[in-house]
Amino acid sequence: MAVDDSSAVVWLSGVLEPADHDRVRDALLARLGDRPGPIVVDVSGLRSAGPTVDRLLAEVRRTVRDWPAADLLVVDPAGTVSGELAVHATRDGATAALARTPMAAVLTEELAPAVGAARRARELVTDGCARWGVPELAEPACIAVTELVNNVVAHAATPMTLRLAPAGGTLHVAVRDHSRQQPRYAGLAPLTSAGGRGLLLIDTVARRWGSTLLPDGKVIWCVLHTEDESSWHHD
Q1: pLDDT tens string 184-218
Q2: What is the spatial order of strands in the sheet that 72-75 belongs to?
Q3: Are 72 and 41 in contact (CB under 8 A)?
Q4: CA–CA separation, 149 vs 114, rounded Å?
């Protein structure tokens, strides 16, 4: 696998064996976690592309479908990749499709694991919700992003990347850190509990949320829907 750090293109070449699945999947997820927007995966250099490649790319696409603005575009001149993927015959066709992606509707910020990180995250969320015409999601999204960021500050203690993007009537929020310690959600916490409520709050305000391990960390993400806002927006 070859990566051009100056572009969104990743090349797969040679023979992709089943034993390579996890390594290549993790590399693609890391690439998607480290840059905003979709990536282009060029499989024209593979000596054979078939079910193994289909399964790999489909799995990666399903994994990132709720990340902010993340997706895969595939370059496959031979037409051997099928299924749910967006396949293009040429790299020019894929990069043209990539250029049509509304990347203006993505906000990204690097945050240190320090006091004030959650406040800056809330500012970014509030600005994004106003910019994208979903101000009703600002309050629940601020609740969610506060918990996502504070989780990194308290447990991972690594630099983090906050990313958010709209999609229809939804807002997608993700925080990427550099710790492989997964968050644990055990459901409702006892009223006498002094902590453990962060994931409960995220689970309450978000329609979906989850955590994806990367080779050097993880992405924790959540999706909020405008139709759910009536429970959280107060006049």
Answers
A1: 665 544 433 333 456 888 989 999 999 999 999 99
A2: 2-3, 9-15, 39-48, 72-75, 86-88
A3: yes
A4: 10
